[in-house]
Amino acid sequence: MNRKVADLAGAKDETEMEARNPSTPEKEALRLTPEVTEAAAHKPKMRRRLKVAHPERCIGCLGCMFACSRIRRGTVSLQDSAIKVQTQGGIEGDFRVVVCRGCMDPPCARACPVHALEKMPDGRVVFHKDLCTGCGKCEEACLVGAISLGKEKMPIKCIHCGACVDFCPHGVLELEEVPVSGG
Amino acid sequence: MLRKVLYIDLTSGESFIQERQELFEDWMGGTGAGIKLLQEECPSGTDPLSPEAPIILSIGPLNGIFPVATKTVATFKSPLTGELGESYAGGRLSLAMRFAGHEAIVIRGRADRPSYISINDSKVEIKDATSIWGIDAQTTGVVLREHETGVGRRSIIRIGPAGERLVRYAGVVVDTYRHFGRLGLGATFGSKRLKALVISGTEHVDVPDARRYKEVYNRLYKTAVQTDVMEKYHDIGTSVNINVLNWLKGLPTKNFILSSFPEGEKISGEMFAEKYLFRRLSCAGCPIGCVHIAALKSAFSTHHEFEVRKVSYDYEPIYSLGSNLGVESAEGILQLIDVCERTGLDVMSAGVVLSWATEALEKGLITTSETLDVPMQWNNVEGYSRALENIVTAPNEFYQALARGVDYAAEKYGGRDFAMALGKNEVSGYHTGPASIVGQLVGVRHSHLDNAGYSIDQKAAKKPMDPERMVDELIREDNSRGVFNSLVGCLFARGVYTEENIIDSLGAVGIVKTGEELQDLGKRIFEEKYKFKVQEGFDLSHVRVPKRFYETVSLSGSVTPETVEEMLRIYRKKRGWS
To answer: What is the ipTM of this complex?
Structure first.
């Protein structure tokens, strides 16, 4: 078993902050390279992205899904999780771990008729709850099925916070850094 | 959190949901609520295979909400023992019940043709299962997956032909690799013409204080994954005990004729892990992944053509179908487990019934005319496979008797001294000493997991304990497990749920309890169960202990009838039953 469970309390606080106060590109760059602010100006700007590094190691505990709804939304729900562990042919089959790929040209945002999903220059897709009509076009647009409507008929969207990573006992998930303009 | 009971009547096809806040407040949930519902639903003297006998499935307030609270308890009248039936299963059932919004499901009546129950949130349908009646438990899962919704968040529980044909120790397969084993819930399903139940839901749970919830969750999660309280379950698994008990002379071998198996190394957990283990799985909500799956690859031609079967294994089936039958290969054991999985037999009872039959055949109590020429001999995997199939199809009176359990068969054919049952339930894989024997005798469901007597014996082997102290430990476990089983946590994770952690996790979902109240609850639950047992004819002063327990040296040396009787006397006195 992978015992590299990070400081859980720390992870929680950070993600709570993130959820309440989404980071700006400036803050993000600062956080990722805190020690070398000067060098940062010359390096490509980076963003964090969730990655299914080892899907075949999944044991189907659903810990990631519960972490997502618990930490981001303070509720216990499978519907309200942005990450999804699906079965294929029951528990005998392989698990499919579905996460947002952080597309550079996100179909979910393009499909939204009211611009409730907006692509930011730093690569993130931001959700404006007040604009959303719950039409579900975003869900249809994502082939991998990484965005779906939750219990309030609003899209549940991954913010690549990494809360799930800390609750995967087998190291299936990783948080990687990719350039803002690529990857 | 609304706490509801779903009532389903298979005779009328009707169902309704009732809020039972008081029931859950007084009895917590799980086994506490289960025994009270059984008392309400099952009048004295009910035939366990009649339409009047209920099936009760229940979860507790922590299921789906906290880590390792992954079990569901089934409460029923046992077709095997004629008294309390209680069985626990993991998989995804408790999660599916939580999100469907039902903390308990009561199933009554009998369908007029083979049926299955489909539950989606509050929608309940009883559907025709005629076309899948008679097919094995695994294929039943494959078929129902195609027809039902809720992929990834549902649970499918089903019986095989053993349940349909009312084998008294038929089990219910839960999500392919987990089971409601022991005491014959599968036969109760069969008697109701109930092939399966599929359940899924989309509800969620809002906790009163999200911050507090996260704090407690993190603490329990850390304890489960970062400390050694669950170490043994996520490496080799429970089967690590094969070698340990073999070395300590506590591993029942060849129907308890021996307490160690000279070929034990060949069937050790280490051997299974090295040669056959290919995957581990978890119940939903548990980070441990103790479900060990072996790949059983066998050639079916000389042209490199293979079939691969995926078989889950644990300590108990390796004992019952392995050392207990003198089976010397992991592959042979996996083949026998696979037969039990497909037919839907309880592996432990099945193995003990076969070991009795093997010895009865050796001793001439039965002959090959009874066995229909099936060679029931130690290590004869082929013979045992055919015998298991025959228990299900029951082609003659002898196999019909085997299908009723070892106690019944020995009553009919003789050999009671080596018919290894306690409280009419075929025994588990421990010849550790008196606490294991007494524990299974007094336990509410006559299971090693009622009070872990085997563990008390092992402690006593290191540091001697007098009989009174052993009894005290048994009573403490009896009671505290009543509380834990009301939650309904996985017993492998009992080390995670200290009293303090139970109080805190309940607090996080808005249930305030003190340690004293919990201890009182455990005692009350035990007493309610005994009320039911006694009402159905169980009498602790007339229990039978097979002589074999006294003849074969155990892990703690020779056990004498006097010690067992003394412990029973002390037990009755301490329970106030003298």
So the answer is: 0.92
